[in-house]
Amino acid sequence: MGMIQTFNQAWRIPEMRKKLLYTLLMLVIFRLGSNIPVPFVNAELLRTMFDANSAGLLGLFDMFSGGSFSNFTIFALGISPYITSSIVVQLLTVAIPALEELAKQGEEGRRKINNITKYVAVGLAVIQAVGYTFGLFTNVLTTENVFYKIVIVLVLVASSCFLMWLSEKINDKGVGNGTSLLIFAGIVSRIPTAITTTFGQLKAAGWQFLGQTAEDGTKSIGILSVLLFLIFGLVVVVGIILVSEGTRKIPVQYAKRVVGRKMYGGQNTFIPMKVNQASVMPVIFAVSILQVPATIAYMAPNSGFAAFVQKYLSTNGDPGFWIYFVLDIIFIIAFTYFYGSITVNPVEIADNMKNNGGFIPGIRPGKPTVDYIVKVTNRLTIVSAIFLAIVASLPTLLQHWTALQIGFGGTSLIIAVGVALETSRALETQLVMRNYSGFLK
User: Do 338 and 286 meet the contact criterion of CB atoms below 8 Å apart?
Assistant: First the structure.
């Protein structure tokens, strides 16, 4: 209800309503482009190809592109190259001193790092576009002319760059994080199709309660599977909200100081440490990393490497499902810790507290304070990491053990709910800043 009230309050303010409408317009443009096919594509052959490979590796790309990948539209690359580039550059920032110095140079340094990220993203977009055009989708094209294929590559790369520009415009003139909102729009757009497909499967199975397994091992969907998924989805949404909104308050007390005839300090406050500091980014990064082998495999779909990826790194491979399952959990936990380490700086917090005469009751200033903050952060991070890993993985197991094929699973739910909460918080922040600005005027 708080989220709905926030949007209602923002809608009544002309300035905020303009930002909301601008964000909505950018998302509408994204969805329109997601339905414009690239030139020289045979739609029938494309549909046949994806009917035969509807699960596994292809599903990863399709989730991020909101269905653009399976339809081979101009936004088939989606925002994925930019996300992968962000991962690479952030990891290199920790490893390369020059990039680390840039990160410490404030706004100017962040601008330079952002430009580097864009250049890397364009390079990745070119690699992916060439792989799709001359590899994965080459059999569904109506032309063998190399020039026309180069045109397709340019269209895909230009569209990916346009999405990067679109996300930046949302950041500057809209509400929320542009990259996350584009992914959110793609996920939400799949819900009507998922509902229609599920009801179609139930009808084809004769509305069986438990479902059945045929002699060839294929499974039919049952009403129980759908109910379990709905219950799980509700629990996940509630859990994500509780974890995302959860905060550990570290008490801080400031010593009394006498300056002239006035006394300062002596007040009690707290440091709010969020349970989930990284929000949905570890899940997005984990899926992006797991896409890398598939991207390479798509450049040579008939090669031995492609067969290896399909068998050992695919959700429909054997034993690839379990390898993918374990790697997904490991990457989510690792990226949660990584984001926690770059989001919270215990040394800086302890120094600021010490310089202002503050201390944590029962903890000495200096290194003991740093150690205490690190211990609290690690405990919160492990809770957040395990929660994200479980929520992202359990629906995959549910769909593996049943015939239920929902177009979105735990990963999609985490991203969708997390982005909705982030956008609501961003809206609240802008409302507060606007009220302060009005008060100061």
Answer: no
